[in-house]
Design brief:
Blueprint: E1 3-8, H1 13-25, E2 28-31, E3 43-49, H2 57-66, E4 71-77, H3 81-95, E5 99-104, H4 116-126
Parallel strand pairs: 1-2, 1-3, 3-4, 4-5
Helix pairs in contact: 1-4
Length: 127
Amino acid sequence: MSTAIVYSSMLGGTRRAAEYIGSKIGADVINVKDAGDISKYDRIIIGSGVYAGRVPKSIVKLVKGSNHPNVYLFLSCLYNGEKGTAQLKKVSEDLDVKDAVFFNKIKKQIGVEGSELDEYATRLSHN
């Protein structure tokens, strides 16, 4: 199964997380600015930060414009707990992505065995 991780990152944490996941699952890692046609991939994983409760327009345009049947989403989020869950719900519903997760303090989880990010990458490697 060919997989692309398409990300948007302002401060580098989401990019580094995308690269980490990509290395664990053997995916192509692509900045959303360079994404182009993603239809050749069997699975698309979208990674983004959340800014004022939203993901960048470039992510929205890519996801909504692709009509890809196999899209996953991970968010780098300032909030955790109920606030993080509420933000994830809003963004995933707006993008119509069913398989979505969020990470708080994502930079601290990169490369840490057993972290939520590591467990997410492991789950993706088995899907």
